[in-house]
């Protein structure tokens, strides 16, 4: 599987391009900004986008989705609990002092247990609320990889002081949805370096009492 991690935008959101060499199919996760650079990376690997998945409706993860959708025709996936946040892109842009992107049309509800495919790989959607009500993570069993959005970082967890945030719920999500996964699972957070579940369970301060 091709996996390109492209930090995009002001807040350097980790946008992931997951591609299948054989079929040329790709999924783009969290195209927060720099749609041009994402399209260039897709072209370089000769990939065709079949889906755009947004882990939650913060502007740094969602900001480039509509532009990418317009260029590729691929449907945009978002958990229904984040639709309200998605409609507040303009306000989010003002808070961050950045220009507002085009409003994003959501095509598919990314619900718990839903599966996406690229080639013969399956991605399972885990609903992991806490950072926002509709935050999701993507679990790729064949690769033992977890795309965690802003739920878990190396040495940290997502902030829960923004609208829809819940400090207790984010810890419950990590315990209930991440802890059953294999320890060696590689975690790609929404920002910052890649880590593993084993490392975070051993060293991440926020996980010590779970
Ligand atoms: Zn966020
Ligand atoms: Zn973020």
Short description:
The chain is built from 7 helices and 14 strands.
Description:
By secondary structure, the protein is an alpha/beta fold. The protein contains seven helices and 14 strands. The strands form three sheets. Strands 1-2-3-4-5-6 form a six-stranded mixed sheet, with helices on one face. It has a six-stranded mixed sheet with strand order 7-8-9-10-13-14. Helix 1 packs across helix 3. The longest helix is centred in the last third of the chain and has 12 residues, at 167-178. The protein is globular. The N and C termini lie far apart (33 Å). The mean pLDDT is 97. Bound molecules: zinc ion (2 copies). Residues 56, 58, 131, 150 line the site of one zinc ion.
What class would the helix/strand composition place it in?
A: alpha/beta
Strand order of the largest sheet: 1-2-3-4-5-6
* Largest beta-sheet characterization: 6 strands, mixed
| Ligand list | zinc ion
What is the radius of gyration?
A: 16 Å
How many strand elements?
A: 14
Distance N terminus to C terminus?
33 Å
Beta fraction of the residues? 25-35%
| Global shape | globular
Question: pLDDT under 50 segments (min length 5)?
Answer: none
Mean pLDDT: 97
* Helix share bin: 25-40%
As an assembly, this protein is single chain
Give the H and E element order.
EEEHEHHEHHEEEEEEEHEEH
Q: Number of DSSP helices?
A: 7
What layout of secondary structure does this protein have?
Layout: E1 2-8, E2 13-19, E3 25-29, H1 35-44, E4 48-53, H2 59-62, H3 65-72, E5 76-78, H4 83-86, H5 89-96, E6 108-109, E7 115-118, E8 121-127, E9 136-140, E10 145-149, E11 152-153, E12 156-157, H6 167-178, E13 186-189, E14 195-196, H7 197-203
Bound molecules: zinc ion (2 copies).
The site of one zinc ion has 8 residues, from helix 2.
